[in-house]
Design goal:
With about 450 residues, this protein is an all-alpha fold. It is about 75% helix and about 0% strand. The protein contains 18 helices and 2 strands. Helix 6 packs across helix 7 and helix 10 runs antiparallel to helix 12.
Amino acid sequence: MTAAAPDLLRRLERFIWGERGVALPAWQAGSLRLVRTVLILVRDLVDGQLTLRAMSLVYTTLLSIVPLLALSFSVLKAFGVHNQIQPMLLRFLEPLGENGAEIAHNIIEFIQRMNVGVLGAVGLVLLLYTAISLMQKIEESLNYIWHVHRPRPLADRFSRYLSVLLVGPILVFSALGITATVMRIETVRGLLAIDMLGQVVQKISGLTPYLLVIAAFTFVYVFIPNTRIRFRAALIGGIAGGVAWQTAGWGFAAFVASSNQYAAIYSSLAILVLFMIWLYLSWLILLFGASVAFYVQHPEYLYASTGEPRLSNRMRERLALSVMSLIAGRFLAGDPMPSLPELTRLLRMPTHVLQTVLEALEGRRLLLQSTDDPPLYLPARDPSLIPVTQVLETVRIAGEERFFTPDRLPAPPPVDQVLERMRQAIESSVDGISVRELASATMADATACQVVEADD
């Protein structure tokens, strides 16, 4: 029995991760994808990067929560709804029980004591910076999850952050106010008096906390990362994060109500400790939902090994030639040029890996990006003037200028001779073949396959 256990585990692992190239029924493929996603999410949580970023967000939140709410308070005060901040804060801190009410009361007192006139210009700038720093931390964390390495331009970041900080609260309270107004209309009250409709509305009202949190999470996943997020992926992530957050709130409330040792150990600091733990759980759940959205949109990242995928030299050469052939084929046929998301979908390669090869080809002026959003890739010159040997050489030497070059690695003469013979053999075998010829041959093969399939 003991000897059979490792063999059973190997078979199970091979079944879960080893069926990528095999055509499976839709229900089985969907089930395998769900199992892989759950395993990868557990691995990411155990790996520790999400927890570290959640801890960083807790620290930034403690510094910026008063300035952040002060800005929202100032905006809402102009619309006469500033008194609604405390109920929303109480709602967020509800899992802390009586401690939550005390924390909310203290935060509101801090906000009311803040006087912009006393702060002066420097103090006002620091106030804005502290509030915006939280938004920047959130974007950095979500960009990490979405494997985005290029931050937004400074002007774009500033406008987006101010939109969330200033316009966001107005939209939230406007929606709540419209809902309350509609519920007070006599016609609506008459409809609610009908037993069946009243029960339906009551059930929906019970789901309102879930719906609000799901909507907030979905908005964050769509609006904050510096990449294009499909609404379906963001919504699934929002549902996973919203349900987890509400469920964690119930569990944390039960934990606070049943444990008195924190007050005995930490005394007056117990409130702060519990508050920090709840902040940590909230941020971790937000990042967890973002991970769910990422894997829904990018199933190509569902692989068994940990860390970023690294390609072998053979795979880089294969990928570079496939990319150039696909882009040149689109260019020659007059079809729309592909974007990075489309290349990721067509080649079934992780975005990070594909982007590394694309950047190398761009650096050697073999590809160009358009100004579209998202950018489209097109040949930098006539494909007939791009030899295949240049594409292969590009991916072979990628990264040398930033790290080491062959000149910095002394090698014995026999080693240099072998490497030179290999280079000459490659050049002689593919000499004279251009990317245009490669793309034309690929297009001819694809047409022949389509004709055969049509005949069958």
